[in-house]
Fold:
Amino acid sequence: MASRGGVAGSAWGVSGDAWEVVATAPLRVHIVGCGRWSMSDDRAGLIIAERLQNACADLGAIVASEDPVDALTDPAIAQTDLLIVVDASPATDSHPIGTFQRIDYRARREAIGKNRRGDTHTLSVETALELAEALGLLPPRVWIYVIFGTDFERGLALSDRVAAGVDGLVKRIEHDLRELTAACPCTS
Structure:
């Protein structure tokens, strides 16, 4: 009987005299874009989730949510191989406006708190991840993409540099997913 292997969507099985990776299922991804539609640059995570709908919908669920606790404690997440969370955070000297970074939550959990703005929304993303972990809902891989902004006041438009960064981050997430699925022998 095959057991779950180290590559998402694969299992180890016997073929002839050797163990090899045997395709069992496609990579399952859950993407959550966080933010608030009415708060200028904070909209970026929501917009990115919407833009990923076409390119990544076949990999799993994509959600744009103003309630990260609800979105990140969805029991369906436990059935996935990868959770991607996209959110905005204030720019700093080391993270200029419109730039972004990917944080591997499993490897660098402490980096999430460093991006905190001090409001309840950011606290909710961090708290929701901790709660999902405590409930056993987090998949083996959790990637947090942070885009750095400057305007978190009421407004319905992204700042120009964040708007330009959104396009780059969408491409980066698509690239990272293509790279991951290429490494997974069960996907095409």
Remarks:
- The first helix runs from residue 44 to 56.
- The first strand starts at residue 3 and ends at 4.
